Structure formats: structure tokens, C-alpha cells
Sequence to fold (80 residues):
Amino acid sequence: MLEQLRGRNLAHVGCTVGLTLGLVVGMLSAIAIIALVQGDAAVTWATVAFFFLTFALGVLGYVVGGRSSRRLWGPDPHDD
Fold:
């Protein structure tokens, strides 16, 4: 399988995995916040947690995927 990925940029794969995990973890944390926090602020905090986790894990996946690409295949010859 590693041979099939040779030469590909894994940052895009990492971003997809990160966003998927972010959506799942963000949804679970939003549900937990709504269940635990009573009042009008629960929806606001759940929304903030959902978006923060989604974007944070997406960016983290992009960075980790990009670094693993450079580590596995070396630097991109097109980079200056």
C-alpha cells in the first residue's frame, strides 16, 4: 500500500481524516456540552466547541500529513 502512495502529498489525505474526526468529535462534544450545561449559553458553547474542534483537527491533519509526506518521500522537487 505504501508503494501506491509513493510521490503523493498526504496533506490532503490528512486534512480529510482530520476534518472527519473533527466533525465526529465536535458533534459528540457539542452533545455533551448541551447535556451538561443548562441554560441559554449551552447552544453557544456547543457551537463554539464544534467549530473549533472541526477546524483544529482539520489543520492538524493537514500539517501532520504534509510532514509525513516529506519524511517518507523527501522534499518536493517543485518547492523553491
